[in-house]
Amino acid sequence: MINIPDTSGGTSVIRLTPARCNIWAVTRNNRTIVVDTGISFDRSRIEHALERRGLVPEAVILTHTHFDHAGNAAWLQAEYGAEVVVQEAESHFLAGGDTPIPEGTYTVTRGLVSIGRKIGPAFRYDPCRADHVFADRFDLNRFGINGYIIHTPGHSPGGATAVIDDEIAIAGDSIIGTTPGKPFPPFADDVEILIGSWKKIIDTGCVTFLPGHGKPVSREEIISEYNKRK
Ligand SMILES: [Zn+2]
Questions:
Q1: How far is ligand 1, taken at its centre, from the CA of residue 28, in Å?
Q2: Number of helical H runs and strand E runs in the chain
Q3: Which DSSP string do the residues of 102-150 spell out, in sequence order?
Q4: Each residue's pLDDT tens digit in the chain (230 positions)?
Q5: Residues in Cβ contact with 84 at an 8 Å cutoff, skipping those fewer than 6 apart
Q6: Rounded distance, CA 145 to CA 122, Å?
Q7: What's the gap in Å between 174 CA and the centre of ligand 1?
Q8: Residue ranges per domain, the chain?
Q9: What number of other Cβ atoms are within 10 A of residue 148's Cβ?
Q10: pLDDT at residue 138 in the model
Q11: What is residue 162's DSSP assignment?
Q12: Distance 29 CA to ligand 1 centre (A)
């Protein structure tokens, strides 16, 4: 169970349900957006979790289009009328149901990536036409959420981070929370670019950083890792 305190602006962020990636529901005054979507296998769990809490997502924000994050975007769009938002460098991957395969940042993960490229078809998902495509920044107030999305590439070309009430950053796979003290992701297209995106994420001033996998990471952990790598 991951427990995240509400922001001082009264926005709640919960991990909706255990799934192939962290799926976050962001709610304020009965208006809800969902960040990331898991894989098709997670679908019924997502449906139950939304129903149990009486949430109807108005929007789906994709932190990137890897299959484990984008797998239910098309379904949420069709089922709830949620508007799908993606950064422009990956809208064509989403439209084709394709995963941009990243480079490994450690020796072990480099080997995994070469295997991944061979089994590429397993990384496909239901294609989805985005309702909103943005370049640098996208405002979330239109969905009743005090926040915005910024472009944070590096793990993948169209990486995006949602910033809620200037307190919580939902960073997708730009940050990983599966191993305490090791928040730098094991897979990235471009490590240099990712480190630049970490600077952007730190500059939001947020205190809590929610990764695509694993547990929340503190500002102290992020800054100490950034200082080692910059
Ligand atoms: Zn990813």
A1: 27
A2: 7, 12
A3: PPBSSHHHHHHHHHHHHTGGGG-------SEEESSEEE-GGGT-SEEEE
A4: 789 999 999 999 999 999 999 999 999 999 999 999 999 999 999 999 999 999 999 999 999 999 999 999 999 999 999 999 999 999 999 999 998 877 666 665 666 666 555 556 668 999 999 999 999 999 999 999 999 999 999 999 999 999 999 999 999 999 999 999 999 998 888 999 999 999 999 999 999 999 999 999 999 999 999 999 99
A5: 59, 60, 62, 73, 76, 77, 94, 128, 129, 130, 131, 132
A6: 35
A7: 8
A8: 12-229
A9: 17
A10: 98
A11: E
A12: 31
- Write the single-letter amino acid at 164: I
Distance 48 CA to ligand 1 centre (A): 25
Q: Looking at the domain covering 12-229, what would its CATH class be?
A: alpha beta
Ion ligand 1, residue ranges at CB < 5 A:
66, 173
Residues 6+ apart with CB under 8 A from 115: none
Report the alpha-carbon distance of residue 130 to residue 146 in Å, rounded: 22
How many Cβ atoms sit within 10 Å of the Cβ of residue 188?
24
Asked whether the whole model's pTM tops 0.90, one would answer yes
Long-range contacts of 181-186 (CB under 8 A, 24+ apart): 181/221, 182/225, 183/209, 183/211, 183/217, 183/221, 183/222, 183/225, 184/105, 184/225, 184/229, 185/105, 185/155, 186/104, 186/105, 186/106, 186/108, 186/109
* Chain centroid to CA 77: 17
